[in-house]
User: What shape does this take?
Amino acid sequence: MKKRTGPLARMMAKQAEERGDLYAPACPSRGVLDHVTSRWGVLVLIALMDGTRRFSELRRRVAGVSEKMLSQTLQALEQDGFVLREVHPVIPPHVDYSLTPLGEEVATRVEALAEWIEDSMPRIMEARARHVPRKA
Assistant: This one.
């Protein structure tokens, strides 16, 4: 079979490369998915929707997260272009975190998922109560 090499075929191939493919094991989109959908990633993104916060404010808002995990989560989200880290040249150091425009887009989407989970908890708890673990 002859391989297509026309302008449309080249454009479609380029789009496939640029878009990402979550099903491909080596695609970097999987790492982004991990960062955005991790427990702490979701909560940090939603917490930053209210505006700029300092590290200690985020830690209080995202109850239960350790300093190490919050730091790692913020670094990953910053690397992906979702979070802006702004260091102010004062003593002691003052660092602010906020969402970038790209971060606002993804935060809106994970917020919708989080709201669905909260709204659906009665049905989820009913399903859990009915679930009988299978014996191996």
In short: Strands lie at 53-54, 83-88, 94-99. Residues 70 and 113 are 21 Å apart (CA to CA).
